[in-house]
Specification:
The protein is built from seven helices and 15 strands. The chain is an alpha+beta fold and 348 residues long. The protein has a ten-stranded antiparallel beta sheet.
Length: 348
């Protein structure tokens, strides 16, 4: 597989790039790394035993209450389950209703700052009934069904007026106690600061150019794969090595606007991308997040908010510099990472 040589990579001068989407500076410092092709996870993930896994089919009684399943018939075997989190970060039982008091979030105040009632939802999406099956092992249609299950749950949650933002995360870490393929949905009564910063940044770009920054044609040297409805890229100012975004090619602000055809298309591209990451980077733990518009975004905001799926392989930790400054150091130039991922041969 062709790749930039170690000499070529390390002879490049460092650059500080501005991320126009997240309004964040990223330092690209290739001297801190080996060749892009040398990045590998330290060790493959170690799955826990299926016999002790509450997410496996037959162990449903060990889980928190079920919200819905796919297919919905309780007498048939399920393919996907959406359940409550057994240890939720937020409480769905505080008493806020779908048509709740819009001023409820202001009822709690603190001497040291604003305090909002911790009403919200924290759910788990179990993506397969079989312990050993990971998301990348599913067929594109099946990955699409997982995405549509997330869409369905978001549509249910958005009926609650106090919920401002829904965040989806598929996370894994080496040696995780729950290696059964699953993701989490958190519905918040506030808009997180990172999301607010991204909205403000994309608005600034839109005000200056009259265009959505994610609708802009992506340079060829940042592209990985293109399908009918989506494109996968390494962002120009990637925060993390081998970070990949999958972006709708046509402007769309809300993930829950995804239809069946696009879900299958996205499922195929997500599967391909995860398989490429697995092959090239030694099956690393990874997170993928759906970055979407706030549920109650106003019409004028929708012109410059463009949802995307963000995939971050866990290849390096976050250090004190990043924590203290909010400025990240990436040892792999985006163009080099994209070139490597373009050329990965995925087994059939």
């Amino acid at each position: 597989m062709a790749s930039p040589s170690s000499t070529q990579t390390q002879s490049r001068s460092p650059e500080i790039r501005k991320d126009p989407v997240n309004n964040r500076w990223v330092i690209f410092s290739p001297a801190r790394a080996k060749r892009p092709t040398d990045f590998k996870a330290k060790s493959p993930q170690n799955p826990n035993s299926s016999s002790s896994c509450p997410f496996c089919i037959g162990n449903e009684h060990e889980c928190a209450p079920e919200i819905f399943r796919v297919p919905p018939d309780p007498k048939s075997d399920w393919k996907i389950r959406v359940i409550q989190n057994l240890y939720p970060a937020l409480s769905r039982d505080i008493g806020c209703k779908k048509d709740g008091d819009p001023d409820a979030e202001m009822r709690c105040t603190g001497d040291l700052g604003r305090v909002v009632t911790g009403f919200g939802f924290h759910d788990v999406v179990i993506e397969s009934p079989v312990h050993s099956v990971q998301l990348q092992d599913l067929e594109p249609r099946e990955v699409g069904e997982v995405l549509l299950a997330c869409k369905k749950r978001i549509e249910q949650i958005k009926e609650y007026d106090l919920i401002k933002y829904v965040f989806k995360n598929h996370g894994a870490s080496a040696g995780a106690s729950m290696s059964h393929s699953h993701s989490q949905l958190l519905a918040l009564p506030v808009i997180p600061p990172t999301i607010s910063a991204r909205i403000n940044s994309t608005k600034e770009y839109f005000d200056q150019s009259g265009k959505c920054c994610l609708c802009e044609v992506q340079p060829k040297d940042l592209q990985i794969d293109v399908t009918t409805h989506f494109i996968s890229i390494v962002p120009f100012a990637a925060t993390f090595p081998f970070e990949i975004w999958i972006i709708p090619r046509n402007h769309s602000s809300h993930f829950h606007e995804l239809d069946n055809e696009k879900a299958v298309d996205l499922g195929g591209l997500l599967k391909l991308t995860l398989r490429k990451i697995s092959v090239q980077l030694n099956n690393p733990p990874f997170n993928f997040m759906i970055q979407t518009a706030p549920l109650q975004a106003i019409d004028t905001q929708l012109a410059y908010i463009h949802w995307f799926l963000q995939i971050v392989p866990q290849l390096a930790g976050v250090g004190g510099f990043e924590i203290g400054t909010g400025c990240y150091i990436n040892p792999v130039f985006s163009e080099d990472a994209a070139k490597v991922m373009q050329e990965v041969n995925v087994p059939k």
